[in-house]
Amino acid sequence: MKEKLFDIQEELKKLPPSPGVYIMHDRHDEIIYVGKAISLRNRVRQYFQSSRGKSAKILQMVSRIERFEYIVTDSELEALVLENNLIKENRPRYNTMLRDDKTYPYIKVTVREPFPRIFMTRQLKKDKAKYFGPFSSAGAVRDTLDLMYRVFRLRNCSRVLPRDIGKERPCLNYHIHQCGAPCSGFISPEEYRKNVDAALEFLNGRFDPVLERLKNEMAQAAEGMEFERAAELRDLLRSVEHVAQKQKITSEGMEDRDIIALARDEREAVVQVFFVREGRMMGREHHYLHVAVEEDSAEIVESFVKQFYSGTPFLPREIWLQQSLPDEQLLTEWLSEKRGSKVTLKVPKKGQKERMMELAERNAATVLEKDRERLKREEAKSVGAVQEIEKLTGLRDIHRMEAFDISNISGVESVGSMVVFEDGRPKKSDYRKFRIRTVNGPDDYASMREVLTRRLTHSLEQKDDHFMKLPDLIMMDGGRGQVNIALGVLKELDLDIPVCGMVKDDRHRTRALWYSDAEVPIDTHSEGFRLVTRIQDEAHRFAIEYHRSLRSKDQVKSVLDDIPGIGAVRRRALMRYFEGIDAIREAGEAELRAVPEMNAAAAKAVYEYFHSVL
């Protein structure tokens, strides 16, 4: 690779006195820190001036800076938004970061559809639907949805209504009284919309209308001697009361607010968030953070607030905090802009508000104390394990490891997998799959050469943002032979990246590492060994899953493509309409003709194929 020349002192002189975002890179050109500034000139220069007053974390970061770049913005608010986006995208190691990438479940109501659906989702989209959450427990969401299906009888299917009304019989949910079957026209749009409005009230914490309705219906059923129906309504009433009783924390008003509290020690921190909606606490969750001893608590909370609210679909009117934040005015402006109305940051000082804040603080401290040992074990499994591998190989600063594997059956549909581990943890967003293009037959070495060449070339040609980062260590699923393949590709591309092989014994179990033309023994009871086997197993699993999915697709394709007159368009239409080969096999000619893309001749060909050939 061409050497990149960057004179830091010269570049410091060129910095403008404008607001913007600065980005620090290390010798591998990896982004290690992102920050914002009112004046780029003043802020960036501070890093390279006297070390007096700087924390150990900042000093360590500065020692690794190879170059920096910056983006000028029109305002500090724009810089804040850009800084947050860059941190979320690149996850720099010296920024305060959430410890997990966990996506929490939400309840989604598709209110813009003629017959809205209600279901659980982990993906937040700008689709004008209503989202409720986040919830910390998927099980609790499923229990709530099960109750709501029985009370409000809303659909959760993917049928397109009203287009598909009457095309199919109602599903099982209708027969067990968990859906009003709008797909069959058994409920009017007006009545269905009333159920939707009642469900939205329920999700907003207003349980009284539902309780009153169920009590009246139960009394009417008992008077009409419909005892089974009365018993069913009684059970529903108890379920709703049970959910309502969980909402024990109320306030004198009906405000929406989040309560955020931090608990920390020298190395770990936990942020506890209480979600209060219309005066009732609807749920809570906690997040782990990477922190340094010197970091100020207010700055940690501010970093959390920026990351957390950039990804949530709902912003409350108030956010309560333990203390004021450094950029409070700027944050308030940004949050208000995202919500579309005023958002207020408050520090409760007395009365019930202060007690609520104290409750959140106690919960955060409890979580930190309870999970301290588990966090230490996780640290040993991840960062500690990487350090063991560094010690075995003599390498330094291993941050990103990539492992590769090949999967095929007798050379058919050969595929390759690439898995990524950063700081000892899998980074699934950077995983990649490769369908082998140039190799015929079961040649794993040639297939691996193709996969590595494509992956590394992508990085050099900057074709994919996730391929821009080069690994600090390549892990090969094998010994000397696989390592030599990787070294050959690296030499052709003029890249200098360490390569380590994962050597297996006769029983296909990892026993050692192959590095620098020698077998390196590894303690099979160590965390480093466990990390190596996790990486190896993950690469193998990912390749096998991809290969299995391709085989499945090819089997479906071959069955339908053998039928005269059935091409790609009709094949997709049949699979979309019947949702499976078995349903197509069992369909009559009239049912097959009901598919819009099918005509009489095509329907007859499909019917005769399944009833005469198979």
Task: Give the topology.
Blueprint: H1 8-13, E1 20-25, E2 31-37, H2 40-47, H3 56-63, E3 67-72, H4 76-90, E4 106-109, E5 118-121, E6 130-132, H5 138-152, H6 172-175, H7 189-203, H8 208-223, H9 227-245, E7 257-264, E8 268-277, E9 280-290, H10 297-310, E10 318-320, H11 328-339, E11 344-346, H12 351-393, E12 400-409, E13 412-422, E14 425-426, E15 432-435, H13 444-461, E16 473-476, H14 480-492, E17 499-504, E18 510-515, E19 518-521, H15 527-561, H16 568-578, H17 581-586, H18 589-593, H19 600-613
Parallel strand pairs: 7-10, 10-11, 12-16, 16-17
Antiparallel strand pairs: 1-2, 1-3, 4-5, 4-6, 7-8, 8-9, 12-13, 13-14, 13-15, 17-18, 18-19
Helix pairs in contact: 4-11, 5-9, 8-9, 12-15, 13-14
Measured as a percent range, the helix fraction is 40-55%
CATH superfamily of the domain at 400-552: UvrC, RNAse H endonuclease domain
- Helix-strand makeup class: alpha+beta
Low-confidence stretches: 246-252, 554-558
**Count of distinct strands:** 19
Determine the number of helices (DSSP H or I, runs of at least 4 residues). 19
- Strand percentage lies at 15-25%
